[in-house]
Design a protein that fits this description.
six-stranded antiparallel beta sheet; eight-stranded antiparallel beta sheet; about 270 residues
Amino acid sequence: MLSRNEIMQTIEMIDQQHLDIRTITMGISLLSCADPDPEACCRKIYDKICRKAERQHYLAHAGMFLQRGRDNVVALVPGRLQADGHSHTVEKYSKFAYSSRFAFSISRTPVTLGEMAPDSMLCFRVGGYFYVKDLVEPGYRVGEDGLDFRWSPLEGIRVRTRLVPNERGHLRIHTIESGFDCTAYDCGFALSTDDRISFSRRAEGPVSEVVSRGDRCAVTSLSGDGRGEVLIPDPNTNLIATKTSIPMAVYAIRKGVQTIRTQVDYL
């Protein structure tokens, strides 16, 4: 994970040393491109960027997995190990995936699912309230084959989540140990569904889908008897879209241990 000091150093390099931001978003180090000949240096930089601009890319130094689609970069992340005093840290750091095209949503209250707006999260309804991932346990793993981490949304529920990148998006495998019956909502990205644009929503069997201006996010329950639903969050919960829709798979979680598998498509 990146420390605050590393983040501030990066900002300083952009602001004062004119570092090309593309090398950051792609996670590329240009140290190996150094050359006393400026033309040779430029050629090395060009070749390295072209070589590294692949569709799926594991960033070891950042602890994340990047995916690239049409006008969209998605980061799969495990989350954070410790809390801090900043506002909305759960939304900023604890979702499963972050998209440069769809941004992310900010929760208002945990009282209703529409106000919670849990895009890119596994959300649990317990006792009339909604709970999501905050911190991950030590020992999480990020590699070329995906991510593996453990977390707890509240006392009485523990989850092991595996995110497996694929050509369509990623597969989520959640092993849930619960001390009581509850409901879980495995949510995809929040897509713009403003009344002034063309969009469609669909929920049929285990599949839910939102299509908007050529963008698409579909969520499919592969195991666990999930059903497809589309959530319409409260307006202005998303950073860039005033009105959104979130495809999701809804699962009945029973006391004990069970595994659910959800495919999320967006590439």
